[in-house]
Amino acid sequence: MRYRGMLPPVLAGLVSAVVGYASSFTVVLAGLRAVGATPAQAASGLLALCLAIAVTAIGLGLRYRMPISIAWSTPGAALLVATGHVPGGFPAAVGAFLVAAGLMVLAGLVPWLARAIAAIPRPIAGAMLAGVILSLCTAPVKAMVELPLLAAPVIVAWAVLFRFARQWAVPGALVAAVAAIAVHGSGGSLSGAALRPAAALTVPALNPSVVVSIAVPLFLVTMAAQNVPGMAVMATYGYTPPLRPLLVATGLASAAAAPFGGHAVNLAAITAALTAGPDTHPDPRRRWVATVALGAGQLTLGLGASLAMALVLLSPPLLVVAVAGLALLPALGSSLATAVTEPEGREAAVVTFVVTASGTTILGIGSAFWGLLAGGLTALLLHRRRRAAQPSPQPSDGPEPSHEAGDGAAEAEPVAARP
């Protein structure tokens, strides 16, 4: 039969949708609320992102017959949390979302721009992401001190599942949080909440400082932490989709979602392995079905965006951020490793991390931009310093002296000149 064996990829796509949604929707809602969204606008943003993911994933899956997984930008949402309130409120943030989407489309249309983004040193990009999510990742510790009865079951559930079923660790922590709130009470109820999905249109406003604070870092962190790793994951399983059309597609989808509160969609980096791997289907040519199922699953989950917002409002804010922090711990570990593993560029990465993690706003521009700028300047300074430390070739009329003559030439080689 033609459709024989389609159940495994369909299930893989649905599992990927559930895991991706449950693992980070709290980060998305916290990020949108941090930059000024009302509960209705945040729920609308979550709905818009799910619809954008569904349309893009299904369209790309059918077009290229590859398991091209799409997700929202979780690091981008963490950036919004770190940025906090911006001049002009949520309309200015929506304007920045549109600019970031435009930059993504431009990267797909202009080859040199994509190459320029890829040329950003990996240690600096990793350090910027680590600085952005650090404050979120410390939230579980704070929650244990301030809300021990609520936080302890969440952390224990996360730790146990992380050991035995890693992909379900954050969804399990979320279930534990809901159970803890139900047992200990939160002083609220879902009875008066509007649970039907509703789109809320926000007229965008362009504010130069907000564009620099949100749009540029959002574009960079989405490229460095989502699109590039997403392509790498697919290549691991033997797929090489054309990057530029994918950037255009996700950029246009992000632009469509932005007026309704969605910040960005992109290639999936983590959940991509759930749809592109051999467990999805033994035949690589049939794994694209998982992407279509993922889109259908995201569409269904998006209809519950208002319910998700209502549950978040019932939870203590610190507990919501703690669940988000648990979801981002693996990202923090990998970004820190990227930042400091290689000795070359380590100092610039540390400068980037420190400035970004400080959360300092200068001239109305958030710390992510200043961290990237400070790291880039440090890398340029140290690069010139290392070049200056290299010995200049000395002219000689005769043959070069032999190191075997015992003249100490080998010991005189500057350390800075060695690779």
From TrEMBL:
Residues 386-419 are annotated as: Disordered. Keywords: Membrane, Transmembrane, Transmembrane helix. InterPro entries: Benzoate_Transporter. It comes from the Bacteria. The keyword Hydrolase does not apply. The chain crosses the membrane at residues 40-62, 69-86, 92-112, 124-141, 147-165, 172-193, 205-225, 246-276, 288-311, 318-337, 349-382. This is Benzoate/H(+) symporter BenE family transporter.
